[in-house]
Structure formats: C-alpha cells, structure tokens
From TrEMBL, chains A, B:
GO molecular function ontology, one term from the record: ATP binding
Keyword hit for Glycoprotein: no
Domain GHMP kinase C-terminal: 231-295
One cellular-component annotation, GO: cytoplasm
InterPro entries on file: GHMP_kinase_C_dom, GHMP_kinase_C_sf, GHMP_kinase_N_dom, Mev_gal_kin, Ribosomal_Su5_D2-typ_SF, Ribsml_uS5_D2-typ_fold_subgr
Domain GHMP kinase N-terminal: 83-167
Protein name as annotated: GHMP kinase
Gene Ontology terms describing biological process: isopentenyl diphosphate biosynthetic process, mevalonate pathway
Metabolic or biological pathway: Isoprenoid biosynthesis; isopentenyl diphosphate biosynthesis via mevalonate pathway; isopentenyl diphosphate from (R)-mevalonate: step 1/3
The keyword Ribosomal protein is annotated on this UniProt entry: no
C-alpha cells in the first residue's frame, strides 16, 4: 500500500515541572523534565480531502477545507491549522488529498505529564515533514508556542521545550533553553484530583491583587531560588537541589497553591532517607507531587512510574 | 501576722506569637498576644536570710547570700540576682531577712504560652516593689530583657512586651511596642511535642548557612508581611490579617520550621468557615498552631482554651 509506505511517524516525551512553576510566567527560569512515557503521532496521507484524527480519546473527521472545532483535539487541530495554512500551497498539496493522524499515548491526559505539549510537538513534526518543511528546533518551538497560545491564551512554554529537547531543561520563557546533565532520579505521585492550570492561575491572580507587593516580591524570591536550582541541577548537586525544592515548595504554599493532601504527600516523601527534596510539580491545587530521589521506605499510592529520559522529539 | 500583711502579689499573662517569629530576630516587627491564662507570684518577706521559691514544679531554698543555680527556677533566680544585686543595699534590706516567692500558674510550662516571660515579669514586679523601686514599663521591660538574655543568651523579647502590656502588641526588638485594638478571637492547638526554641534557631541557622542569600531575602519578605499584618491588625481587618497569616506560614515552611503534623493541623483549621487564617505560633518544629477566628465545624484535639486578654502585668 502506497499510503502506508508514505506514512510519517513522530513521538515526543511527556514532561513535568521540577521547579519554577508560576515564577516562570513572571520572567524566571524553570527546570522542566522529559520522561520515558511518550506520545506517538502517525500521519498517513489520504486520497480524499479529509482530515481524520484517531486516538483513544475519540475520533474526528471533517472535509479538509471545512474543519470544525473540537475541544478533545484542540491542540492537534490548532497545529494542523498553523502548518496547513502556512505551507500547503507552497508544498503543492493536491486539493483532492488529506491526512489521517493517529495518536497513541503511554499515559493519561488526566495526570500532569504535559500531554498537550507532547501531542502538539509530535503533530507539528509530522505535519512539517508532510508539507516539506524541515524546521530546526528553535523554529519548531516557536510553532508549538504559537499553537499553545492560540488554544489556551497563555503558558510558559516550558513543557514544549522539554518535549522537544528531552532530558532536563533549564528554560526561560524568552525561548532560551539549556539541556542539562546528569539526569536526576525522581518519584512522581498523583494526588487524585486536578484543577486546570488556567483556574489555578486565576486564583493566584486574585490573591495577588490583594497583596500586590508581597506577591511581586514572592515571585522575585522564587526566581532567585529557581536560578540557584538551575545551577545545582547542572552540577548534579542533588542534595542542594533537594533543599531548593523544599524551599520553593514553601514559597508555593505562600502563593496559595498548596493544600492539605499535597502537603501530606510531600511531608511523607521527605521522611524517606532516599528523598533529597519533595514538592508540588506544576501549578498546584491538585495534580502531582515530585520527589528528587525515589523513596524506598515510604509507600505512597498513585505512583506514576516515570523516569527522566534524555530522548526528546523523535521523527522516524 | 506581719509577714502576710506585707506580702506583695503580681501577675502577668501568658503570651503567644501571632505573626513575625524568626523575622523579629532579624529586625522585623512581630504581632504578639497576651492571653487570659496568667502566672501569679507572691513575695513574702522572711525574718531569716533565706531565698525560698515554691511552685508546682518544685521547691528551692538557699541562704540569701549563697544562692546556687537551679535549672527549674533559672528565670526567677536571674530576676532575683538582677534586682537584689542592684537595689538591696539602697533599699536598706537588713542582712538578717529574706524572701519567699510563691508561684502559681494557670497553664503548663510545656505548651508555648511564654511561661518564662510571664514568671520573669511578675517576679521582677514583686521584687522591685519589695526593694522600693517603681520602674515604669520601659524600665521593667529592660530589666526583663536583661534577665532573659542572661538565662538563654538570645530572644526577641516579644513575649516580655506582651506579658507587660497585655492585649495585642506590635513589637520591635528595639523595645518599641504598640498596643493594638480591637483584640482578635483565636484558636490555639498543641501538636503534642515541642522542640526548644534555641534548637529550632540552630537548625534554621544551619540551613541559612547553605542558602545565605535566599534566607536573607526570605527574612525581608517575612518582615514585609509582618509590617502589613501589624497594620491590618491595628485596623481589625481580620480577613486581611488571616490572609497574611497564611502567607507567612508558607514562608515559615520555606524557612524549614514546618512539619507534617503542624501542616495537617493548619490545613484542617483553614477548612473551617470561621477561620480567617492559620499558622504555626512560635518558632516551629512542634508546639502550637494558632487560628484567627475560632473554628466551629472542625474539631482538633489538644485545644488550649485561651482567649486574647487586655490585662497585662498587674501588681496588687
């Protein structure tokens, strides 16, 4: 079959925040990690002018020139919009053809492993190849950021950077990113619920309005901590990085994004001798906590079995 | 009996920290409260050259000119030392006479209600009267601070200020203190264990050595928060004061003086609709948590039944 021969495959890793969430939106650097759970996207050219999307979350099918919105596939559709509009004519794509995008994921989109970032990056990669483009990683990052902003209006882009680069990345929202080695060993635990990041940001913004100076200075302190954490991470000084994680967690608590359950999990993890530090991963008020070092003696439910992995975006 | 006729009685309130602990040692203001549980000291002149101390904690008896150290009564003995050395000759105290000091307390010295401060202030008050001195509150505060420094080497003096003034006091370790109204309603809960303040300070100092700049800036932020809290407290804006307490608690967590149990109690208290804010009271790593507002729906064990009370040192 010609179509199978010409299919294009890409995959990108899930990502998670080690340190710097919230402050990264205010100009700080952040440490973000790519993990060994991935999202794969396969593009198959079709002989009919259709856009089809298939994943475990559902199906989408529309005439390629009459695409409709679909919340389930908002990132894929925005990525398609971005690339197809820009490059289809230039690539000489015949009006009578289309594509099928098949998505497979190693992890649920319900836990905070950056599924939107991974699927966006992998989708952009296969679309660029199909449309004859060979963007470098900076260009791909800018495409991905445009897609993210189109869908959700804001975001640091840190998860996009790690999905592209893999491993551990020191990221600034200017787009500047530095891949660091060695990679840390981590534990990741889901707390059982999750408030969507935009809602968390809204609550923080409300609190910040009431204490503007205290929040401004808090972000400055988070930025200082994140800067020291990037240095410690680059040197593989896990003891220092763990201390900085604990410190940052206190600042997250002051920010108002900690809660009883997250706090309980974090203190349990810190009680393990193999854990150098523990904190919320991500915007808070739910989702995951991350430990630097894998606990040995402490058993927490809902462990998400991930490890930091060096492999970023891969285009087959 | 002549001796009973000439006895002198004073009492001082227990105290607790509402906000500003740790930072007050670095030049910040603090909010400290006097409560309705008191320590009473009665001085009875004796016809023999003895110093006697009696309390629920034990007894002490020594020739007045051959006093020995006793850890149980270190603050009382230092207060005696301070006053007797300074004023006995001037007061014309006969070499053949002595005193008995009887101490009664409404609360255990094991919970963080500032028993040392209360007993120091009340003891100094009766000794001054016996020795013909009439110090004003500034002078008494300086005497009390000298006693405290003699016994434990350091301390902010905030609890001494509240034990003298009563009510809610905005305190600076320069000795500057401002009595505020109205008085807040509070809940106080003991966590079941307590690390002595000097040991807590030692641990914080160790952590600060490793992250000097982050700790310096953390203290600055605590000071800013405390300053806003003093203003909110003076205006009786409990909603704002509660928010500032929660914020300060996050900074205490970053400082490294929070733990699993304290955190759990604090988040339980914050879950009550009548609680405006909740945090550690005192140096942390044990002891008490304090809520602004008395919880209605949440039941925590080990409630210490205290209320803020306006009455400070009282000399009968």
């Amino acid at each position: 079959m010609n179509q199978i021969d010409s299919s294009i495959r890409a995959s990108a890793p899930g990502t998670l925040m080690l340190l710097g969430e919230h402050a990264v939106l205010h100009g700080s650097r952040a440490l973000v990690l790519a993990v060994d759970k991935r999202i794969r996207v396969e593009l198959t050219p079709l002989d009919e002018p259709q856009l089809e999307i298939e994943s475990a979350l559902g199906q989408y099918r529309a005439p390629i020139d009459q695409r409709h919105a679909d919340a389930t596939f908002s990132f894929i559709l925005a990525a398609f919009e971005h690339c197809y509009t820009a490059f289809a004519v230039e690539a000489g794509i015949s009006p009578g053809t289309g594509v099928r995008l098949q998505v497979e994921s190693d992890f649920s989109h319900l836990v905070g492993l950056g599924s939107s970032a991974a699927v966006t990056v992998a989708t952009l990669a296969v679309l660029n190849r199909w449309l004859g483009q060979s963007p470098n990683s900076d260009q791909l990052f800018e495409q991905a950021r445009a897609v993210m902003l189109r869908v959700q209006g804001r975001g640091s882009g840190a998860d996009l950077a790690a999905a592209i680069e893999g491993g551990m990345v020191a990221y600034h929202q200017s787009g500047e990113r530095q891949k660091l080695a060695p990679l840390p060993s981590i534990g990741l635990y889901y707390c059982g619920y999750k408030l969507k990041t935009p809602l968390v940001l809204e609550r923080v913004a409300e609190a910040a309005e009431q204490l503007p100076l205290l929040y401004q200075h808090l972000y400055q302190l988070m930025a200082e901590c994140a800067e020291q954490a990037c240095e410690a991470a680059g040197q593989g000084d896990w003891t220092l990085l763990g201390r900085l994680m604990n410190y940052y967690q206190g600042l997250m608590d002051a920010l108002g994004v900690n809660d009883a359950k997250l706090s309980q999990m974090i203190y349990q993890l810190r009680g393990d001798s193999l854990v150098q530090g523990a904190k919320i991963s991500g915007s808070g008020l739910g989702d995951c906590v991350i430990s630097l070092g894998q606990p040995q003696a402490v058993e927490l439910p809902d462990r998400i079995p991930v490890q930091v992995a060096s492999l970023g975006l891969r285009l087959d």
